[in-house]
C-alpha cells in the first residue's frame, strides 16, 4: 500500500471510527487494514489511534496527522481533477442528503436531465432532514433549509422559499378566522419540532418588526409530510413553505391567514465541509441543484 493509499485508509478509519467499517467501505480485508495501520505507525514512530472494543479514536498525534492527510488528499484530488476534467467528463459517485419535500418537488423529477448531462456520475441520495456528520458519514453535500448553524460547514444559499400561515377549512369553520395577532394566540397549532427537539415558533413580519408566537397544540411532528397532513386533518395552524401546500390552497382545503404579515422567506443552502475542495463531480451536481432550485425563489 503506497503512502497516499495509507493516508486515505487512515482518514476513513478516523472518519468512521471503526476498522471494520473502513475495511467494508474500501473493500479490503480487515487484517490488511490493521496491518497497514501498524506499518504506518511504525514508519512514523508514533501511535496514531486509541483502540477500544466499540470505537477507534485518534491520539493527539493521530489527530494532527489526520488533518495533514485531509489537506494532502484534497490537494491531490483537486490537482488531478483540474487536468482530468479537460480530457474527460466528471465521473464517480456523489453522496448527498436532501430534504424530502424539496427533493420530491424540485429535484427528483429532473434526475433524468442530470443523468443525460453527466452519464458517468452515480448519485447516492438520502432523503432526510436530520443532523449529519458529513465527514464521518462520507457525505459530499447536503441541502438544508434555514440559516446554517454549523461553522464547520461551507454554505451556499441557492433559494429563498416564500412561507404561508394556514389552517384547514374544517378547523376555521369550528374555531373561527383570527383577525388580529391577539386572536391568533387563542388558537392551536400543529407544532413542528426542530433539530433541537423544541417546537418552532410562528413568525410574522409586522411593520418591519419580527414577531414570534408560540401556540399550544394537540400534536407535534418532525416531518414536513406529517406537518401538512395534520393540518389537513383539522388539528391546527401551520407555517410552511408555500410550494408544499400550494395545491391545498388552490383547492380550498387550506386557507391562508395574515398574508400581509408573511414571515421572511426561508433560505435554502447547499452545505459541504470547510476543509473539502469540491471535486468536479460534486461541483457540477451543486451547480445543477442551483438550476433546480432557481424556480423556487
Structural summary, described in words:
With 297 residues, the chain is an alpha/beta fold. It is 43% helix and 24% strand. The protein is built from 12 helices and 14 strands. Strands 4-3-5-14-6 form a 5-stranded mixed beta sheet. It has a 3-stranded antiparallel beta sheet with strand order 12-7-13. A hairpin with a 2-residue loop joins strand 9 and strand 10. The radius of gyration is 24 Å and the shape is elongated. The protein starts with a helix and ends with a helix. The relative contact order is 0.15.
Task: Write a brief structural summary.
This protein has about 300 residues and is an alpha/beta fold. It has twelve helices and 14 strands.
Key structural traits:
alpha/beta; 3-stranded antiparallel β-sheet; 5-stranded mixed β-sheet; 297 residues
The largest pleated sheet is described as:
5 strands, mixed
User: Widest sheet: strand order?
Assistant: 4-3-5-14-6
Percentage beta strand: 15-25%
Output mean pLDDT: 89
Regions with little confidence, pLDDT below 50 for 5+ residues: none
**Any idea what the radius of gyration is?**
24 Å
Structural class, please? alpha/beta
How many individual helices? Answer: 12
Helical residue percent? 40-55%
Order of helices and strands: HHHEEHEHHEHEEEHHEEEEHEHEEH
* Straight-line N-to-C gap: 49 Å
Global shape: elongated
Compute the number of strand runs.
Answer: 14
